[in-house]
Amino acid sequence: MSWPNSLKTVFVIDHGPVMARPSDLPIELDVFNKPRGHGPGAFIPVTPVCKSLWTCAAEASFEYCRIVWDIYPTGRLIRFMICDTKVNPVGSWGTNQQNLTSITYHFAQLGVPVSDSRLGDSSIMHGLTAALESLTECSDAQLEKLKSPGNKSKVHNRGRVICISSFREDGYVRSLESFFQETIVQINQRNFPPTHMPIHHCDFVVVNIYPNPPTLTLKEHPRLELSPLLSCELISVCASRWLASRLVSLVLQHYELASTTVTGIPMKEEQNASSSANYDVEIFHPVAAHADILKLKNESALFLMKEGYGYKTVTLKWCTPRATSNSVEMWPCSSAYRISPVDVTSRPSSCLTNFLLGGRSVMLELPRSGTGGRTTSHMLAAHGGEIFLHSLLIGRSVIEDPPSISEGSGGRVTDYRIPDFGELMKENKLVPYLLSEPFGPTLPIERASNRMERWTQYWPMTISSTIVFNMGVHMETLTKIIVNEELTDDQVIECKKVIYNLLALESRNEPLPPTCSGHRDRGAKGNRREEQYRILFKECEIMLRHHCRSEQHRRVLACLLECRSKGTAPNPLLVPSSTKESAQETNSARSSIPDTPLSPVAMPAAKAPRLDVRSSIAGLMFHVLYQDDHKALLVLVHQL
After folding, report:
1. 632-639 and 620-627 as β-strands: parallel, antiparallel, unpaired?
2. 36 in helix, strand or coil?
3. Residue-wise over 426-459: b if at least 16 C-beta within 10 A, else e?
4. Rounded to whole angstroms, how far apart are CA atoms 565 and 561?
5. Where are the alpha helices (DSSP H) in 547-610?
6. What CA–CA distance (Å, rounded) separates 377 from 393?
7. DSSP, res 530
8. Is the separation of the CB atoms in 613 and 456 below 8 Å?
């Protein structure tokens, strides 16, 4: 389980006289059934009213909590510290306190701040200290994890403190940041009881609100890491609707949420039921619901900046709704996430919510591209009285058959050596190895890695890029023996027989197998047999040089180079019958090894340096892993 800063959040809101000031943003009021005319009973306009800074801060924080608790009913905890002459804690980390009903009840008990400064100024620093003290208290999830002794080191205590007040100068905000940082260090030096933990990291967000027009605005600064324990951010915003929109943008950042706007919702007009109009409804949800959209090529065109806000929204079009109870069509759904309407009190949001809670589902499609095709990407449906946004698979469904390995990009058919690749995997299987058994000077993981490296020193990916591996029985003995770490004298003789047999085939001018005629390195001379044999021996030399790791391997390479340099084919039946004859022949061949044009580099007598397994084969990457927890060796083969 991860422990992000969003698990515990504390709001510290100033309740002093400074928050009793009006926001100076009037709210126009209207009276229903107002009389017409200019006589004695004519309508008298109502004086506009202004919300106080305290009311703006309370409403914005309530909206922040509503969005969080709509999407995360459990696991995301929020509480408040209200500061005037003393600190008034509101709520706790208990799940029964995580609802708007409980929070608004406590706010109503506190009442509005009093503008009389003679009662004393509020101390915001005491509220910050109380907030840090509350962060040291363990939540139910932390206490559950701490019951297991092995999980104590894995449980982290992170949180976030959001301070809302009206400040007059930058110096006071800087002093708050310094005080907050020093308080964390002091608190962490205490001895904590079993129900408390030190703070591993805290995100401190200072929100400065001011009336309109502003008398003094503070300079904002983005999130800064002040220490390994603390990060700080300063936001300065005008009260009223600008404060609410700024906290909405913050909740998207703090909880990794995203916005989706459902457009084209047909809805009957309230005044005229016979006509209908199209409306838009914006919803919030976890950002993971857009995972498939982010993989599209034109994904940037789908995200539009929300006017008046600091975030982007994805526009999805309403499709024909379906009744979930009667629908027999199954949609390939990959995930489902809770949603929260942005404007919960608007008529379009209310109608859409009631429509979905009535047992209907709504399909959402991406905007049509230039080709005009329709792509259904999401579905809205309710389960157990809660509305979820379902992410549908845009590409190939998991219930469909996987594509053939021979299908390349764009539908291009490739000629991969699929059967040979299967044999390679069978020959290099790994099994669990008990560490209690003796394994000698080399670890099993090293032996497995060395074996994989030897087998993949030279391994062409496609049929058209090789002739050696298309020769069948003519080269099978050589390709299987040469990958061994050490060769015996008998194995060297078998390899030489293969070389002599190839020379005999060339001398008799016998044709190569049909699969060798399409080699991409055949040159301008086409499929002439001498050209094919030249490429065959060139590739054979390259393969032998890649595997030239011991004296016995060099004997095989020397035999090939000697035969090709002389230009004559010895009698394949005249094979050395003893080890002594074989050694004499090898010494004679090694003394006459030339640097031919077919040789990439001259091979030194010393052991060749090890090649990286990942770079030794074109298009393949072999990772050898060791899993200590299960005492097992695993191998992962990945085809690019």
Report:
1. antiparallel
2. coil
3. eebebeebeeeeeeeeeebbeebbebbbbbbbbb
4. 6
5. 551-566, 579-591
6. 7
7. H
8. yes
Contact 167, 112 (CB under 8 A): no
Place of tokens 């010494």: 587
CA dist 137 and 139 (Å) reads 7
Contact 331, 392 (CB under 8 A): yes
Specify the pLDDT at position 475: 87
User: What is the bridge-based pairing of β-strands 201-210 and 230-238?
Assistant: parallel
Closest CA to 500 of 547, 597, 508: 508
Judged on CB neighbours under 10 Å (0-12, 13-18, 19+), 322 is middle
Note whether 619 and 466 are within 8 A (CB).
Answer: no
> Can the peptide bond before residue 441 be classed as cis, meaning omega within 30 degrees of 0?
no
**The length of the chain, given as a count of residues:** 640
The Cα–Cα gap between 107 and 86 comes to 15
Quick count: other Cβ atoms within 10 Å of Cβ 555?
A: 23
Q: Would the pLDDT of 237 be above 60? A: yes
More confident position, 273 or 166: 166
Provide the token pair at 48.
């506009």
pLDDT at 584: 45
Cβ-contact 17, 119 below 8 angstroms = yes
CB distance 289 to 340 below 8 Å: no
What is the Cα gyration radius of the chain?
38
* Spatial distance between the Cα atoms of 8 and 81, rounded to a whole number of angstroms: 13
From 58-67, 296-305, 595-604, the region with the lowest mean pLDDT: 595-604
Q: What is the band of 422 on the pLDDT scale with cuts at 50, 70, 90?
A: confident
d(CA 84, CA 437): 70
How far apart (Å, rounded) are the C-alpha atoms in residues 522 and 514? 14
Residue pointed to by tokens 């503070």: 218
Higher pLDDT, 413 or 287: 287
Q: Which of 428, 440, 427, 439 is nearest to 631 (CA)?
A: 439
Q: How far is CA 282 from CA 20, 229, 315, 338, 340, in A?
A: 33, 36, 9, 14, 9
Written as one letter, the residue type at 269 is E
Angle between helices 529-546 and 551-566 (to 10 degrees): 160
SS3 category, 619: coil
For helices 489-507 and 473-481, the axis angle rounded to 10 degrees is 150
Q: Could you tell me which residue, 43 or 206, shows the higher pLDDT? A: 206
Contacts of 435 (CB under 8 A, 6+ apart): 631
pLDDT interval class at 570 (50, 70, 90): very low
- pLDDT for residue 592 is more than 70: no
Residue 453 dihedral angles phi and psi, to the nearest 5°: -65, -40
Residue range 439-488, pLDDT digits in tens: 667 788 888 888 888 888 888 888 888 888 888 888 888 888 988 888 99
Give tens-digit pLDDT for 532-549. 888 888 999 999 998 888
Rounded to 5°, angle at Cα 289 from 323 and 354:
35
Q: What DSSP state is assigned to residue 407?
A: B
